[in-house]
Amino acid sequence: MTDDLRPNYDEALVLDAVDRFLEREVRPHVHALEASDTWPAEIVEKMRELGLFGATIGEEYGGLGLPASTYAKIVERVSAVWMSVSGIFNSHLIMAAAVERFGSDAQKARYLPRFASGELRGGIALTEPDCGTDLQAIRTTARRDGDRYRVNGTKTWISNGIQGHIVAVLVKTDPKTEPRHRGMSLLLIEKGEGFRVGRKLEKLGYKGIDSGELVFDECEVPCENLVGEREGRGLQQILAGLELGRINVAARGVGIARACLEESIAYSQVRKTFGKPICEHQSIQIKLAEMATRLEASRLLTEQAALAYERGERCDLEAGMAKLFATETALFNSLEAMRLHGAYGYSKEFNIERYYRDAPLLAIGEGTNELQRLIIARQLIERHPA
After folding, report:
1. What is each CA distance from 214 to 124, 194, 234, 367, in whole angstroms?
2. Does residue 59 carry a catalytic annotation?
3. In the beta sheet, which residues pair with residue 142?
4. Which of 113, 193, 264, 275 is the most exposed place for a label (fewest CB within 10 A)?
5. Could you read off the pLDDT of 299-345 as tens digits, one per residue?
């Protein structure tokens, strides 16, 4: 593949290159890869060539340096074809963002060019078996031993955990500190001795991308791999990265909602009941209108969050609103699309059942939608004091 997103950046050209990539390299293979739950090695290699693993990494490190708004549009397009592909580079780019924003100069020089090229791919390891939304409850520890840390614990539901090479791991460097977040740090851990994959986790949807359980058993990590060089900053560092992650998840919601609408519009014009296309029935028209309106509102909220992120503003309010509304829209549109398609929507011969299986993940990942509502409310009060 010869397309390259980097030279003479122009958003229309970038998106056109992504569309061509999706039509040539992804769409023809989705059904087979989804059915077998196979990690798409050839697609990943094409993404490396296209530069997607460096999409938001600065050009000085070999990345594309794309703004978040363009990145969100890329994710929307990818997710409308196969959402799993977006997860392969999203978790990776959250890890990269943490290093680029908070890492030492030595860490940036060592890792970011290799992240940007896709030579080193990975993600973030936050969730644990007894800890999801409450990240301060993690139990994975990193004990200082001379010039190294010894890491012990288990992380679960880690995207890119099996096929990736490196993860940014949230650990407790001082488990006794109060408040708890002051004892949390972020470590870059490459696979090696003391770091193994426990098992691959089977999922309802989101096939192809690997979700694994990671086990650390006296895993030795150089102290120079501590992001930011100072302990106790890990939670703030990863939460800042999750702003980009929530914009990504919102964009995924837009992509799925868009695919559901487009396929429903097309199907409603060829499927006939009572002597006419179903698009002429008012009940179907009402469904299409609601799906389209929610989709457009989701896209605008996602763009607003991305623009705030680009300006360097705190955007947990905007990202939370976008993530909440767009992912609920994906759920709504996938169910409406299944109802509109009838039995064909329930069939694996059509894409609708895949959208219906993929959409629920979006309401859970990068912070549940229940958590997003709390974040939104708290930010409203903080920004508008009485």
Report:
1. 11, 10, 19, 20
2. no
3. 151
4. 275
5. 999 999 999 999 998 899 999 999 999 999 999 999 999 999 999 99
Using the structure block, give the residue that is written with the tokens 């609708």.
352
Tell me the CA distances in angstroms from 64 to 14, 93, 183, 373, one per residue in order.
10, 12, 35, 33
Q: Looking at 174-223, which runs of residues are DSSP E strands?
A: 184-190, 195-200, 211-222
Is 7's pLDDT higher than 80?
Answer: no
Q: Report the distance separating Cα 34 and Cα 323, nearest Å.
A: 25
pLDDT at 82 over 60: yes
Is the pLDDT at 8 greater than 90, yes or no?
Answer: no
Q: How far apart are CA 221 and CA 190, in angstroms?
A: 8
Domain ranges for the chain, please list them. Answer: 11-117, 122-232, 236-383
Question: The domain at 236-383 falls in which architecture?
Answer: Up-down Bundle (1.20)
Q: Which of 76, 263, 328, 366 is catalytic?
A: 366
Q: Where would I find the H helices in the chain?
A: 11-21, 30-36, 41-50, 68-102, 105-117, 234-270, 282-310, 316-341, 352-362, 369-383
122-232 is a CATH 1.20.1560.10 domain: no
354 secondary structure, DSSP code:
H
Count Cα atoms within 13 angstroms, Cβ side, for 192: 11
Nearest to 79 by CA among 259, 213, 296: 259
How far apart, in whole angstroms, are the C-alpha atoms of residue 354 and residue 338?
A: 10
On whether the pTM is more than 0.70, the answer is yes
pLDDT at 79 over 60: yes
Q: Has domain 11-117 been given CATH number 1.10.540.10?
A: yes
Each residue's pLDDT tens digit, 182-239:
899 999 999 999 999 989 999 999 999 999 999 999 999 999 999 998 999 999 998 8
